[in-house]
Structure to design on (116 residues):
């Protein structure tokens, strides 16, 4: 009686086929891993999409504030020029803001009535 070897499922051909199958799907696994890392980077860290949106919103608010300050600066520059050149405007500002009067004038302050 001679002993014959029994064929098993782990034959060398089967092992190479299994390894070949893994190599067949390797680009898909690499692509999936890269996609996962990109998504992870978008939502975490100091440059996440949430932080970028917050910075974008803050930038827009600062741009609006800058425009308002530039408009106010322009208005104040015009006011300075008028105060340096226009005597009538200087007199108007002195009367309204500082309650100044000429020698021959009398100032009356009108106080509104209080409602009960």
């Amino acid at each position: 009686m001679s002993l014959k070897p029994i064929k098993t499922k782990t034959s060398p051909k089967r092992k190479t086929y299994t390894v070949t199958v893994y190599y067949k799907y390797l680009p898909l696994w690499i692509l999936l891993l890269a996609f996962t890392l990109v998504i992870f980077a978008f939502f975490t860290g100091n440059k996440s999409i949430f932080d970028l949106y917050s910075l974008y919103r803050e930038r827009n608010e600062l741009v609006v504030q800058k425009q308002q300050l530039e408009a106010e600066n322009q208005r104040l520059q015009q006011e300075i020029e008028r105060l340096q050149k226009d005597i009538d405007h200087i007199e108007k500002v002195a009367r309204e803001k500082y309650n100044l009067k000429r020698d021959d004038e009398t100032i009356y302050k009108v106080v509104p009535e209080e409602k009960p």
In short: The chain has a mean pLDDT of 81.
